[in-house]
């Protein structure tokens, strides 16, 4: 059996994701699709709209065969670390190919860019250092260095292109035999916040429309499959909320206000005196949005600050971030019958332990951070939902999806 | 002018407190009564029912002339440290006497006990060590050592007697010229939870009856002066709540669940593997009461565990506790006209700076903990009440109470 890997957040799963999934199957003729999916917190530093279990259900409904968790320590990171963790998991699962969405749908510019960069690393680093000195953000510095090298024909101001580039780079760096592929994204751009297409909209615009409540669900239904709608309805009726940063702001504020500056400084991403800005701004901030607006600068992008806040909320330290090298386990969240067959074939040759029972992970340092993320994620629920939701994390076996025929 | 010092929590101010205040005035013929009062968290590790400002108003209404704050680092401590901080503040304010409530109303047994203890310190310490080895709590060990020494005629199982003894001991240890006095407590015992007297009831029973809401206020009105009732009503209508541990449990749970064991171990009072018990019990606990019940042992009393939880909630570390030696400032919360006159007389000879504007304290390490306590205390309010209440802490000048004539 041939497996293709995809790297996803499904926050929530929508028609654009379905298109990517279908195109991936066509393009690669794989027998099995493996999705590496972020858990409670996502790459841009946001809490996931609904739990990993609800999103795993969406993925399996859509035809994904295996869903494995990208641990927090890789998931809530810049593109490079994010890609490195995801690629390592897919490599450990013996994926033959990876297929990501890009603006152009052409893989060659990505491969060429990675090759060139490796040859001209020093020059590239120098350009980045120079760019950073002008006070711009790290992503902007990368884009600028990129232009100055005039390497390849990829628009690296597009987040999806940066991720694609990072996947190809990680494959190369890890000497993986995975073949990178890309399919062209359909319609709507990553950050689009308007509905300009009849059935395709970005996850960002969908979340924004929902804005934490079920009331606008009808408005987004043209853009999501029926099983996503059903999963969202079910989640809301059980947990009473969709998760968004504003719900966590009371906890974040409590945390920052009871930390001293030197403690704040030990948190991941809190650099260059950010601790003072945080401590000062938090006193007056009544909402998360107000808080981020008041500390945002040219240097610190919204995403970067949001990620820093996720680290503070989940107590993720610089020390732990520095210790993050590569995945230590493959945590299975869900599988189809087909995915199960695939696992039976590759099971003996997996290079990382396959975990179906999280209780066995309790002493793992990567999972330690996962537990903290779960604790923070469920902290907004009233009791007894909170206690139950926390225990679900440890007790839920992988979802086994049997198609009705 | 002659000043007498009293050490209070007024949580809330009730008829028993008024009796103590009146008896103190009669007994000492002082011209000025100075109360040292705990702030947001109290000696038994509980959040104060209402803010320090509301309780200062009660004290001034009752006829106290000066209210100064006992900082968190002394207030949420065992009797010895609590007394040491309070006595040092009253000494700095040039009180001639201290007058506390006791079961017998006789001062000699207290003085005799302190004298004897100083002479037989080694023997006493040995008895305590032996008692602790049997697995009982520290307060119980003290009581047992006490009995074995057969020193004096004080029942040290009574919390108020332990406090009284600690005041006399602190006066002696600090070589203070303060004369200790005591008045007999009226009716109801400290821990009484029933209403067995027509107009006297313990603060504990009053809080229990209120249990966080205004609805039972009428039921407690026989036991409190009208100004207490008024202050409680006003507080509730402004802030929408009376404070109690259960309201803070969601925050405490979030905090403990996102801390690793070694971090928990750095918190004040977390000794002897308590961190493991805490981490284990917190997962299943849905209420504060459940949580404490599940970790309580013969060794760890409810009070001790509650105090430990206050330290975790406010992020008070072992290191900070060890650094706590003596007060660094006198923070004025309120004064009467008479109190103001007294301050004008003693102002120049105060041995500690008198602080009327908390903003001036921002770099003080004792006040650093006060800020954390305020942040935790106000964290249960919705916005914008939370932000306003936090700012009040820094912006509120001492309450100046002018009696209408």
UniProtKB/TrEMBL annotation, chains A, B:
<comment type="similarity">
    <text>Belongs to the TmcAL family.</text>
</comment>
<keyword id="KW-0067">ATP-binding</keyword>
<dbReference type="Pfam" id="PF05636">
    <property type="entry name" value="HIGH_NTase1"/>
</dbReference>
<keyword id="KW-0694">RNA-binding</keyword>
<keyword id="KW-0819">tRNA processing</keyword>
<dbReference type="GO" id="GO:0005737">
    <property type="term" value="C:cytoplasm"/>
</dbReference>
<dbReference type="GO" id="GO:0000049">
    <property type="term" value="F:tRNA binding"/>
</dbReference>
<dbReference type="InterPro" id="IPR014729">
    <property type="entry name" value="Rossmann-like_a/b/a_fold"/>
</dbReference>
<dbReference type="GO" id="GO:0006400">
    <property type="term" value="P:tRNA modification"/>
</dbReference>
<feature type="binding site">
    <location>
        <begin position="7"/>
        <end position="20"/>
    </location>
    <ligand>
        <name>ATP</name>
    </ligand>
</feature>
<dbReference type="GO" id="GO:0016879">
    <property type="term" value="F:ligase activity, forming carbon-nitrogen bonds"/>
</dbReference>
<feature type="binding site">
    <location>
        <position position="101"/>
    </location>
    <ligand>
        <name>ATP</name>
    </ligand>
</feature>
<keyword id="KW-0808">Transferase</keyword>
<keyword id="KW-0436">Ligase</keyword>
<comment type="function">
    <text>Catalyzes the formation of N(4)-acetylcytidine (ac(4)C) at the wobble position of elongator tRNA(Met), using acetate and ATP as substrates. First activates an acetate ion to form acetyladenylate (Ac-AMP) and then transfers the acetyl group to tRNA to form ac(4)C34.</text>
</comment>
<keyword id="KW-0820">tRNA-binding</keyword>
<dbReference type="GO" id="GO:0016740">
    <property type="term" value="F:transferase activity"/>
</dbReference>
<feature type="binding site">
    <location>
        <position position="160"/>
    </location>
    <ligand>
        <name>ATP</name>
    </ligand>
</feature>
<protein>
    <recommendedName>
        <fullName>tRNA(Met) cytidine acetate ligase</fullName>
        <ecNumber>6.3.4.-</ecNumber>
    </recommendedName>
</protein>
<keyword id="KW-0547">Nucleotide-binding</keyword>
<dbReference type="InterPro" id="IPR008513">
    <property type="entry name" value="tRNA(Met)_cyd_acetate_ligase"/>
</dbReference>
<keyword id="KW-0963">Cytoplasm</keyword>
<dbReference type="GO" id="GO:0005524">
    <property type="term" value="F:ATP binding"/>
</dbReference>
<feature type="binding site">
    <location>
        <begin position="185"/>
        <end position="186"/>
    </location>
    <ligand>
        <name>ATP</name>
    </ligand>
</feature>
């Amino acid at each position: 059996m041939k497996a293709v890997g995809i790297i996803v957040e499904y926050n929530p799963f929508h028609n654009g994701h379905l298109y990517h999934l279908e195109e991936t199957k066509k393009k690669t003729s794989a027998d099995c699709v493996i999705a590496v999916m972020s858990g409670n917190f996502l790459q841009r530093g946001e809490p996931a709209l609904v739990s990993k279990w609800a999103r795993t259900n969406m993925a399996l409904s859509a035809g994904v065969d295996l869903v494995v968790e990208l641990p927090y320590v890789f998931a809530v990171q810049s593109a490079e670390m994010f890609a490195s963790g995801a690629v390592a998991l897919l490599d450990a699962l013996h994926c033959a190919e990876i297929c990501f969405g890009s603006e152009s749908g052409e893989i060659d510019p990505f491969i060429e860019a990675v090759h060139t960069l490796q040859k001209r690393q020093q020059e590239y680093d120098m350009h980045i250092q120079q760019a950073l000195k002008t006070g711009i953000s790290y992503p902007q510095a990368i884009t600028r260095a990129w232009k100055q090298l005039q390497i390849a024909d990829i628009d690296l101001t597009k987040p999806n292109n940066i991720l694609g580039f990072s996947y190809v780079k990680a494959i190369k760096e890890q000497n993986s035999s995975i073949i990178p592929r890309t399919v062209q994204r359909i319609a709507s751009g990553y950050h689009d916040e308007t509905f300009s297409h009849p059935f395709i909209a970005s996850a960002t615009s969908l979340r924004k429309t929902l804005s934490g409540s079920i009331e606008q669900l009808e408005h987004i239904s043209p853009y999501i499959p029926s099983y996503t709608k059903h999963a969202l309805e079910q989640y809301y009726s059980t947990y009473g909320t969709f998760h968004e940063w504003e719900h966590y702001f009371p906890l974040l504020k409590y945390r920052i206000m009871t930390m001293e500056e030197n403690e704040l400084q030990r948190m991941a991403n809190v650099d260059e005196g950010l601790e003072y800005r945080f401590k000062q701004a938090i006193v007056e901030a009544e909402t998360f949005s107000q808080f981020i607006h008041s500390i945002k600068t040219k240097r610190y992008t919204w995403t970067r600050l949001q990620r820093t806040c996720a680290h503070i909320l989940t107590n993720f330290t610089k020390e732990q971030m520095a210790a993050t090298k590569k995945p230590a386990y493959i945590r299975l969240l869900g599988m189809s019958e087909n995915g199960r067959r695939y696992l039976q074939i590759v099971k003996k040759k997996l290079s990382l332990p396959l975990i179906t029972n999280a209780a066995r992970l309790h002493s793992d340092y990567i999972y330690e951070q996962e537990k903290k993320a779960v604790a923070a994620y469920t902290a907004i629920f009233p009791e007894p939902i909170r206690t139950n939701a926390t225990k679900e994390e440890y007790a839920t076996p992988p979802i086994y999806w049997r198609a009705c025929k």
